[in-house]
């Protein structure tokens, strides 16, 4: 287990072999309820999807333990963010720390050991002009961590709150 020191956290690029970790985190009941696709994922569908999309995923780690995961999916220079904290690490401030660090990370300010030097997502950082996130209005912890990370609410409907950075 880890200590409560939060200074030694870092990001690593996910590899193609991390599909099961992401699958389990996305199938956690809270993640499912807060996602816009609420049905449980099917492994075969997920693993085929992950083989294409794994470069979008980052592991947030401390002492080799996975604290959570973040994703940045870039299209037309818009980087859409999503995130999950592992159930056993929730409600301890890691969500705020992870998302605020990830926003800095994708802006080249927070390299981890494996990513020492400039962090260049596969699409090239300069191609990301805006960061975005879409959160269900019921997902209070995610709204809090988005605001903490500096994201600004730009739109709200009964289904979704949109944030930008
Ligand atoms: C949302 C999530 C990332 C929050 O992670 P976390 O590590 O628990 O968050 P933190 O400990 O940093 O808490 C952030 C704030 O939310 C509050 N909070 C956290 N979990 C809460 C809960 N279950 N109920 C009410 N408040 C909660 C904390 O008290 C804190 O509030 P504060 O800023 O007023 O002190 C985590 O619950 C999660 O992975 N959920 C499922 C996936 C998900 O919803 N992803 C986002 C989809 S866009």
Key descriptive features of the protein:
165 residues, alpha+beta, Aminopeptidase, seven-stranded mixed beta sheet, 5 helices, 28% helix, globular, binds coenzyme A
Would you spell out the secondary-structure blueprint of this structure?
Blueprint: E1 9-13, H1 19-26, H2 29-34, H3 43-53, E2 57-62, E3 65-75, E4 78-85, H4 94-106, E5 130-135, H5 140-148, E6 152-156, E7 161-164
Parallel strand pairs: 4-5
Antiparallel strand pairs: 1-2, 2-3, 3-4, 5-7, 6-7
Can you offer a commentary on this structure?
- With 165 residues, this protein is an alpha+beta fold.
- It has a single domain, classed as Aminopeptidase (3-Layer(aba) Sandwich).
- 28% of the residues lie in helices and 27% in strands.
- The protein has a seven-stranded mixed sheet with strand order 1-2-3-4-5-7-6, sandwiched between helices.
- Strand 3 and strand 4 form a beta hairpin.
- Helix 4 packs across helix 5.
- The chain is globular and about 35 Å long.
- The site of coenzyme A (COA) has 21 residues, from helix 2, strand 4, helix 4 and helix 5.
């Amino acid at each position: 287990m880890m200590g409560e020191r939060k200074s030694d956290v870092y990001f690593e690029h996910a590899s193609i072999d991390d599909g099961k970790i992401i699958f389990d985190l996305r199938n956690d009941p809270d993640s499912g309820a807060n996602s816009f696709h609420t049905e449980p994922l099917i492994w075969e569908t997920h693993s085929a999807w992950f083989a294409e999309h794994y470069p979008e995923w980052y592991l947030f780690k401390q002492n080799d333990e996975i604290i959570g995961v973040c994703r940045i999916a870039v299209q037309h220079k818009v980087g859409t963010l999503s995130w999950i904290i592992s159930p056993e690490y929730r409600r301890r401030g890691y969500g705020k720390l992870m998302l605020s660090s990830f926003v800095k990370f994708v802006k080249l300010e927070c390299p981890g050991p494996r990513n020492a030097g400039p962090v260049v997502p596969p699409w090239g950082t300069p191609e990301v002009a805006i960061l975005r996130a879409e959160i269900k209005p019921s997902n209070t912890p995610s709204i809090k961590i988005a605001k903490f990370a500096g994201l600004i609410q730009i739109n709200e409907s009964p289904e979704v709150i949109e944030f930008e950075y």
